């Protein structure tokens, strides 16, 4: 992945992203998240690469929604700018999984309290105190609500939840895989070849998933489908799947 959206960042969003990516505490938490999630529990990557993929895809989805006339929540409710919402999205996406360093169970809550001081420290360099605190709560909401079962209440949070679900190409499943098993989980996880995010026609955002075989539909439903269901932005997202070399067109998947 070339992280084109991250590379296109400028101004304060770029500075804040660079601070996050170089922050010793953040990098250590991400490293420990992989020791816990991958090494001890058998999940796939929940470390720095996952953070970058989710951040990149979240930026892309947010930009598409804004281009299509859907105003981010911080702009609408707090009179912020699109740049402010972009910063909220970047920080929430990058930090959403660091709580795995504590435990996979309720990791969304662990991520929120581990992130708070990091977020405040960085934001106070660029914003006045009140605005920094406002943005902190929005970021913490996005982190807390990225897990299934908790409804995202802002556009920014929903974007992060959906972006989290898009990191599911083969070798990167969000579902724990038994390496010695040959079941629907393992077959499906190995079937997702590519995920493409683009502007849609009927709905603002179109996600295309290219599969090597139809077993990948299970992965789409269980991973991306659940994220979309709880994102609060379900009405803005369409998902299409195509089995590579078997079917010439994408077929829409309804959740």
From TrEMBL:
InterPro entries: HD/PDEase_dom (IPR003607), HD_domain (IPR006674), MJ1020-like (IPR039967). Residues 47-169 form the HD domain. One of its GO terms (molecular function) is hydrolase activity. Keywords: Hydrolase. Signal peptide: none annotated. Pfam families: HD. This is Metal dependent phosphohydrolase. The lineage of its organism: Archaea, Methanobacteriati, Methanobacteriota, Methanomada group, Methanococci.
